[in-house]
UniProtKB/TrEMBL annotation:
Name of this protein: KLLA0F25410p
Residue span, Mmc1 C-terminal domain: 284-447
Pfam families from the UniProt entry: Mmc1_C, Mmc1_N
Organism from which the protein derives: Kluyveromyces lactis (strain ATCC 8585 / CBS 2359 / DSM 70799 / NBRC 1267 / NRRL Y-1140 / WM37) (Yeast)
InterPro entries: Mmc1_C
Domain of life, per lineage: Eukaryota
């Protein structure tokens, strides 16, 4: 699709546009650059795009930028009112600080206001006939500001500037300043040797000097008119005025320039194709993670569980473990299962997909804490029951037989020892069975944790994919639709 859209830019752009402007589309496109998701930083709209979201071209205020000192004198000539009886406003205007950016608007009387939004910018309201006829406002951009003032932020629809190569990015009215072509007009009325300028050539310095003379002395009208013609000011003034009054053409050119910059700077088309192609591969990556996680469960976690169980089987630990110590041991075991490769791989997948994630774990760290009271209660119950049901009765019989001298001390000692040993064995078997059951529960919990993480990742990926697809699909469709209208 991108090649098809780019094709329109290599076609001749000389013909004028005649089409119904789709402001709703430009509004929608601009909105596409201001969406925000938690994992994506705010995107910046392409330069000049907000200028295309006006509801009606006829009501739009065209801003024309005069860039550089080469066209500064041309601006002075255009805005002067040589027939005005009030020269004070022209004197104040001509004494402005040319190192600063100036915003010029038409006003019934001269006044100066500061303006916010552009640094070091002063707004001038001038009763200039040319400015009223052109129906525009002018931003005079000094040489100091030309390199630093962002062309997207200056809100200019069109620029007047010295002709350069290559041609500028944004719609421009190019002029070719010449100096000294008509300098004899300043001191002489002989125009026999005048060499008139043509095309977009101008000599604004000579035109400005003669205009100042004529503003003071109306008897120089012939010299003034000849100078304006010879310096090509009249022709340039008419062309520029017509250009500024043709709002539809200005917006048509601006649309092409904005669209060209979007396709140059914005890789949404490639992103969209890449996103569509990524769906199958991402699903495959998630499935591969699940297989590797289950494999790691068998090769790494189960040996850890067996090792843990074997180290906790001694009778000493059965009778000396407090609930807090047992909780610590089980908590360490659950933390070990959460530090395995599968957790790191899962975190990497979340990061590569740009999906926000909380702390990842296969087993809830509180799982052991919840299991400990039950385990401790059960083992204590086994110890007490064995003592009361087996060990204590045998010991009592042994003591009774020895005291009553019905049995020998040796036989009663053997009976008592048998009760103790049998009781300890039963306690140990019970503890082994409990640890084995706990081991199976941990393994099952890990299996469930792997599947839960897999399903959660798939769910989050589907949501993220749907959001990105909707945004990119809408943006690409809008770009193609707008581009087709401009062909």
């Amino acid at each position: 699709m991108q090649k098809e859209v780019f094709g329109l830019f290599v076609k001749p752009l000389s013909r004028y546009c005649s089409f119904q402007r789709g402001y709703g589309r430009w509004d929608e496109l601009a909105a596409k650059y201001y969406y925000k998701r938690p994992e994506v930083e705010r995107e910046i709209a392409p330069a000049k795009l907000p200028l295309l979201t006006v509801p009606n071209v006829k009501d739009a205020r065209i801003r024309c930028g005069f860039r550089g000192s080469e066209v500064g004198k041309l601006l002075d000539v255009l805005l002067m009112d040589v027939y005005s009886t009030d020269k004070s406003w022209m004197e104040q205007w001509l004494q402005r600080d040319r190192s600063k950016t100036s915003l010029v608007r038409h006003g019934d009387e001269f006044r100066v206001d500061s303006v916010s939004g552009l640094d070091n910018t002063v707004t001038y309201y001038l009763p200039s006939p040319w400015l009223a006829e052109a129906e525009c406002e002018i931003l005079e951009i000094s040489d100091e500001s030309k390199q630093t003032l962002n062309q997207g932020a200056d809100q200019c629809h069109l620029y007047v500037e010295k002709q350069t190569f290559p041609e500028p990015i944004w719609p421009s009215f190019m002029v070719v300043p010449r100096s000294g072509t008509a300098s004899h007009f300043v001191d002489s009325t002989d125009s026999s040797s005048v060499s008139s300028l043509h095309g977009h050539e101008i000599d604004p310095v000579a035109a400005f000097d003669v205009s100042l003379q004529f503003a003071k002395d109306k008897s120089l009208v012939s010299k003034y008119l000849e100078c304006l013609d010879s310096t090509n000011i009249l022709n340039i003034s008419k062309q520029l005025k017509i250009r500024l009054q043709g709002k539809e053409q200005i917006f048509c050119d601006l649309e092409r320039a904005v669209l060209r910059e979007i396709f140059k700077e914005d890789n949404s088309v490639e992103k969209y194709e890449k996103l569509k192609n990524s769906k199958a591969s991402v699903n495959g990556t998630i499935e591969e993670w699940s297989r590797e996680a289950h494999k790691e469960l068998q090769t790494s976690i189960e040996p850890l569980l067996s090792d843990f169980a074997s180290k906790q089987l001694s009778l000493w630990k059965v009778y000396t473990y407090s609930e807090s110590k047992l909780s610590l041991k089980l908590h360490e075991l659950c933390n070990i299962t959460n530090d395995l490769q599968m957790v790191q791989n899962l975190s990497h997948i979340y990061g590569s997909l740009g999906i926000p994630q909380d702390k990842l774990s296969i087993i809830d760290p509180d799982y052991a804490r919840n299991k400990v009271p039950v385990l401790h209660k059960e083992i204590n119950k086994a110890v007490y029951l064995n003592f009361l049901q087996l060990q204590f009765p045998l010991i009592a019989v042994s003591i009774g037989g020895f005291v009553t001298e019905l049995c020998t001390a040796y036989s009663m000692g053997a009976l008592s020892s048998l009760g103790i040993v049998l009781g300890l064995k039963r306690v140990k078997d019970t503890w082994y069975s409990m640890l084995k059951q706990f081991q199976l529960q941990i393994r099952e919990e890990c299996r469930i944790g792997i599947e839960s993480n897999k399903q959660l990742l798939l769910h989050n990926w589907e949501i993220s994919y749907a959001e990105r697809e909707a945004d990119l699909k809408g943006k690409v469709a809008l770009l193609k639709e707008i581009a087709d209208d401009l062909t």
